[in-house]
């Protein structure tokens, strides 16, 4: 079983739609959680950290369910510029400082 | 404040040659991480370094790969006797404290082995 699992997609949605991504992680000791965005052939960039209480940043909402080991990202009113690969990222804790990446979910917003 | 810098951005090597990839962390960051992204795959952790110390090399292949972060100068990822399977994007990341916080990524070096 992969440490971080995501549906690779691709997701093709019309501009203005709401789209949701899910992710599961296998290590219950994981300490911190992030969504990164990666544009084609570029470096990953932090979209948002994810907290147990849930957090929102403009059109983006992230949720963490520690009991189910499940992370979600919701994008409302999607824009063409949201087209990218979304990476679910976990720090496994237990003294490890590395980040563990999911395979990524590819999103294309269509005009 | 300049971000993480990596050079070269593109590197072409023939099988058997050596590849040296350089990474300068963001100003004020003393923790450096190297990741590899094979075509159509996610990023995989390779090594975590602080100045003059390798902290975690659990993701490094056992042979041909080495990394350093000297007291002065950039971090270096060195691949000896490259093979075609080493072709990938190599990303460096840094953060100031090495805690469970976010990491900031450089633009990557794309290595192509002919």
- Count helical runs of chain B: 0
Briefly note the structural class of the backbone of chain A.
Answer: mainly beta
Rounded to an integer in angstroms, the radius of gyration calculated over CA atoms of chain B is 13 Å
Number of strands of chain B: 11
How many strand segments of chain A?
Answer: 11
Span between termini of chain B: 37 Å
Query: How helical, in percent, are the residues of chain A?
Result: under 10%
Distance between the termini of chain A: 37 Å
β-sheet strand percentage of chain A: over 45%
Query: Segments of chain B where pLDDT lies below 50 for 5+ residues?
Result: none
Tell me, briefly, the overall form of chain A: globular
Order of helices and strands of chain B: EEEEEEEEEEE
Description:
The complex is a heterodimer of chains A (111) and B (114). Helix content of chain A is 0%, strand content 52%. Chain A has 111 residues and is an all-beta fold. In chain A, the strands form two sheets. In chain A, strands 2, 4, 5, 9, 10 and 11 form a six-stranded mixed β-sheet that branches. Chain A has a five-stranded antiparallel β-sheet with strand order 1-3-8-7-6, with no helix packed on it. In chain A, strand 6 and strand 7 form a beta hairpin. The radius of gyration of chain A is 14 Å and the shape is globular. The N and C termini of chain A lie far apart (37 Å). The mean pLDDT of chain A is 93. By secondary structure, chain B is mainly β. Helices cover 0% and strands 49% of the residues of chain B. Chain B contains no helices and eleven strands. In chain B, the strands form two sheets. In chain B, strands 2, 4, 5, 6, 9, 10 and 11 form a seven-stranded mixed β-sheet that branches. In chain B, strands 1-3-8-7 form a four-stranded antiparallel β-sheet, with no helix packed on it. Chain B starts with a strand and ends with a strand. The model of chain B has no long low-confidence stretch (mean pLDDT 93). The chains are: A mainly beta (111), B mainly beta (114). At the A-B interface, strand 5 and strand 10 of A face strand 4, strand 5, strand 9 and strand 10 of B.
